[in-house]
Amino acid sequence: MAGYQEAAERIAARIAAGELKPGVKLGSERQLSEQMSVSRLTLRAALIKLEADGLVYGKSRRGWFVSPPRFVYDLGRRANYKTMAAAQERSAQIDLLDSGLAASRELPSCMREHGLTRAFLLRRVRHLDGRSVMFESIYLSAEAVPGLLKHNLADSITELLRDDYRIEIDREDTSVRSALLDSMQAEALAVAPATHGVLIERRRFAAGRLIEFDTEHWLPGAIEIRLSVEP
Amino acid sequence: MAGYQEAAERIAARIAAGELKPGVKLGSERQLSEQMSVSRLTLRAALIKLEADGLVYGKSRRGWFVSPPRFVYDLGRRANYKTMAAAQERSAQIDLLDSGLAASRELPSCMREHGLTRAFLLRRVRHLDGRSVMFESIYLSAEAVPGLLKHNLADSITELLRDDYRIEIDREDTSVRSALLDSMQAEALAVAPATHGVLIERRRFAAGRLIEFDTEHWLPGAIEIRLSVEP
DNA sequence: CCTAGTTCCTGGTATATACCAGATTCTGGC
DNA sequence: GCCAGAATCTGGTATATACCAGGAACTAGG
Asked: Is the pTM here over 0.90, yes or no?
């Protein structure tokens, strides 16, 4: 009786008991598998399941760690990332990987449907307590934000639109689903290729015009999405 | 050069080309792995990745199938499941697995915090085009809905509350995250044990009182959550 | 023609083994 | 004491093999 389910339960129990604290690195896979008398593949299966459940997370070729609490992403409140993180007593950081005009080939179809032909594309990685947890691609209508690249692009885009361009977002369509990370995203987040994640897509409008299209790939154990509605 | 990534791409290409249509069963794992000149484990890894991306789905011990389009779950519109499914031209069905008073041990903590001591528990499975896609556990405050078990529990609970109990939900707190299915849920949905899924939790209030607590475990490839907000 | 029981097939799980490339650690030279 | 290069360790991937229990298909009996 040495299945991955049992191995997962034993590790989960050690975490629940407080024996292993968030951020702590588990031993190496070979080491753990020997300790628990299972093969390395079985141990790996257990870790991958625990990762999907948000109890541990793996950093590619760097080991497995006990997960901190999920970041709570409130779709209702329009607070920016760093403010939300501060409210949860966590440190946040945004890295700009890439910025420029999107090639017309790679213009998202939803922008083309709205008659847009040119857009800026930003690629960013968001960190939480030093860990990279989200990869985002932001498309901004080039007509709406001329000279975008001269601005600070490593902070809240909402605030940039409001303060520098006087654009107030008045509608936001959000979509959430499960999706794989492509190789660029996986590498940027230092996770195994083809890790699965939570994909949030947002279309943001001002005065009926599509201003921004945004895809956010979150590591699945790192986020919890919340929403309060009053019909 | 025979990795799971390449195998996944080849299968994805066949689906994208329309060669394999939604609902169609792929060959057996042994058969496919031989065709593609990879080991069965490698082929399985490819299928599991494709499943996380929503292109195929596995039914435990029954094979792998090409996924139909995701069910679009609009959090904003308060339409019921069957209506939403009909609008998407899909057939929906709800099975009641279990109903009764919840043991006080298994009363969810959020209900206890609201001073509730007794609740009904319903377990249901929702189907889409004949495929089971979601497992839900519904806790209803026993004070709010006396004699609940005499009613039809295989249809919209919202409508039951409104029509039979004159309870109008005026606030709904929703939470979405990634989570594993437990063995009961996996069995009811006919998927492999410890499959990962999308967990939607809802707390529903009427006149400031918690009426209902609901957990919905969706198969990850079967659902897309949408929301439109106008600040 | 329908049913019950047997057989075969399938996916789910487990093992041992191997190799690669990126991270980390160690070590020798300056 | 610092730095660059080498050796080592680690996770990621791939193979072959094996067994089990649930599903599906077939077959024999009514």
From this structure: yes
